[in-house]
Amino acid sequence: MDAFSRTGGWWASMNKRTLLGLPGLTWYILFLLAPLGITLVNSFLSSSAGGVLKPFFTLANYLTILRDPTNLSLLLFTLRLSLIVTAVSFMVGYILGYYLALMVKSVPVKMTLFFLFLTPFWIETTTKAISWFPVLGESGFLNVLLMKTGLIREPISIFLFSQFSATMVMVVTYFLMMAAPVFLTLSRMDPVLLDAAQSLGADRIRTFYHVTWKLSLPGVIIGVAFVFVLSVSDFATPSIMGGVIQTIGMQIAYQTFSLANFAAASAYSTLITAITLGVVALLFKIVDVTRLIF
Fold first, then answer.
1. Domain 69-293 class in CATH
2. For FRET with 280, which of 73, 86, 144, 293 sits at 20 to 30 Å CA-CA?
3. How many other C-beta atoms lie within 10 A of the C-beta of residue 147?
């Protein structure tokens, strides 16, 4: 009877946990796994006129992408742009997360500043990109300020519709995705560890590396994953701010909306998703990110 009671209690507990997780699991399947599965299947089909998919298996979409030097250079440019955005976002985001977590002592002030930095996420991406036109344009605030101070004699065109402007706006958009996990990781660090390291003779550089940096690595890895995934899939910001530059995201949008070639667009999407998942899996192999969660 005792064994039956214990088994029944365990089963009831399992059922409760299953029911609690069922809404999230259902959402995950319907809005993540199912679309990814449909995209994967479509990538092995072919499109006819009007975007109608032909139901037979083919590798032509992937072969077209991999055999075309233009597509390969487009892929490499997208990855390079994403790596640059991720690297700059890391430098800016780590400093911000470090400052909020360790330099600001008042918890209300700390949380107020943190939420203020999150307010740009309430604005739609396209609107945020367009809002930079009065700042970066040839007659914008930045050029006018530089000419007023005598640093330049004529407006600089590189500030807008270039790789520089696309990179800068993407960094401004995504660096908070780096700062947030770093801030959360360092906020959980016991300040006694810093005092202990210095008491044992470590200077500030060694204390930072062996204590602060190593304890913040889970947050850094999660931030890098967030920024890389978002920047590699972004097509709105490069298309608005980048001028003539082309990315994989823009190519997917072109194949989908201009050519109605859904099979080719699915192949591009599947390829970039596979690369992104590979990078994220490698990052999570390097550092145990569960330390940030548990």
1. mainly alpha
2. 73
3. 14
Give residue 39's pLDDT.
93
Quick one: pLDDT band at residue 119, thresholds 50, 70, 90? confident
Of 119, 127, 285, whose CA–CA distance to 217 is shortest?
285
Phi, psi of 46 (to 5 degrees): -130, 150
How far is the C-alpha of 221 from the C-alpha of 290, rounded, in Å?
11
Tell me the pLDDT band of 4, cut-offs 50, 70 and 90.
Answer: very low
Q: Is the dihedral of CA 149, 155, 156, 160 positive or negative?
A: positive
The burial of 205, by beta-carbon neighbours within 10 Å (0-12 exposed, 13-18 middle, 19 or more buried), is given as exposed
- At position 178, the amino acid (one-letter code) is M
Domain positions in the chain: 69-293
Q: Quick check: 267 and 65 in contact, CB under 8 A?
A: yes
pLDDT at 155 over 70: yes
Residue 11: count other Cβ atoms within 10 Å of its Cβ: 10
**Phi, psi values for residue 54, rounded to 5°:** -90, 130
Residue 88 identity: V
- Nearest alpha-carbon partner for 157 in 136, 173, 129, 134: 136
pLDDT at residue 2 tops 60: no
Instruction: Give me the mean pLDDT over the 68-93 stretch.
Output: 93
Residue among 226, 217, 116, 216 at smallest CA distance from 178: 226
